[in-house]
Amino acid sequence: MPVAIITGASKGLGRALAAALAARGWDLVLDARGAGALKEAAEAVSGPGTRVAALPGDVTDAGHRADLVAAAGRLGGLDLVVSNASALGAEPLVRLGELPLPGLRRALEVNVVAALGLVQEALPLLRESAAGAVVAVSSDAGAEAYATWGGYGASKAALDQLAAVLGVEEPGLRVWAVDPGDMATGLYAAAVPDDDDPRPAPESVVPAFLRLLDERPASGRYDAPALVEGR
Q1: What's the whole-model pTM score?
Q2: Which residues share a beta bridge with 27?
Q3: Torsion angle of alpha carbons 162, 168, 173, 177, nearest 10°?
Q4: pLDDT tens digit string along 105-149?
Q5: What element of type H or E holds 59?
Q6: For 110, which DSSP code?
Q7: Residue 171: is the preceding peptide bond cis (ω within 30°)?
Q8: Which residues are catalytic?
Q9: How far from 54 is each of 34, 72, 111, 120, 172, CA to CA, in Å?
């Protein structure tokens, strides 16, 4: 069966993707920092014929990234890496003039450096796959200028560029940066705690990711709501 690594998989979009892939018979290696929440998520998505390895840890730790890839190897290989783990840089978000630089460094480490580090670790296995793919979960904040989203947006813009270059350098793989659009997630609640406007559940955009896996369009940046609508 195909094997995927999903970071930030204990809740939100990561967990929703894990559930959808497990339902399709994928074997999974799941990552999150919280061991308890990750264990619960892994048990929830597990089913007959699906093997799930749950490895709590921090994606900025090179040893942890190596453990994730090693776990995939023990499941038989690696076909998909989903870099979904994210850090905001400040909770709640603040304007750039007030953004703590350690927070910005943390956002860059989690959202950019760790994502590339995981791909570097995974490349030998991905190249062996008949359908190797990388998904970098992006954000419209990486393409548009929104007040208070500067640090997070800068990290996602950098992630987009890494994904674009990786797609050129690795023509045998598919590398997709995917903007999931607005979602009701813990990350958004931490970013803007006073915003009570209703937002779609992460599960609503999962079909976009499945469409990418099914149709395997060219490497590039994609908008999940547009994919869901068939555009």
Answers
A1: 0.97
A2: 3
A3: 40
A4: 999 999 999 999 999 999 999 999 999 999 999 999 999 999 999
A5: none
A6: I
A7: no
A8: 152
A9: 11, 11, 20, 21, 28
Residues near 49 by beta carbon (within 8 Å), at least 6 away in sequence: 1, 25
Tokens of 112: 């950019």
Scan for tokens 């038989």, then name that residue: 76
Bridging pattern class, strands 174-179 and 80-83:
unpaired
Q: For the sheet containing 27-32, what is the strand order?
A: 52-56, 27-32, 3-6, 80-83, 133-137, 174-179, 220-223
Yes or no: say if 29 and 9 are a contact pair by the CB < 8 Å rule: no
194-219 pLDDT, tens digit per residue, is: 998 999 999 999 999 999 999 999 99
Confidence tier at 56 by pLDDT (50, 70, 90):
very high
CB-based contact 112:162 (threshold 8 Å): yes
- Look up residue 20 and give its two tokens: 């959808």
Q: How many CB atoms lie within 10 A of CB 227?
A: 19
Burial class (CB in 10 A: 0-12, 13-18, 19+), 22: buried
Q: How many Å apart are CA 109 and CA 179, to the nearest integer? A: 19
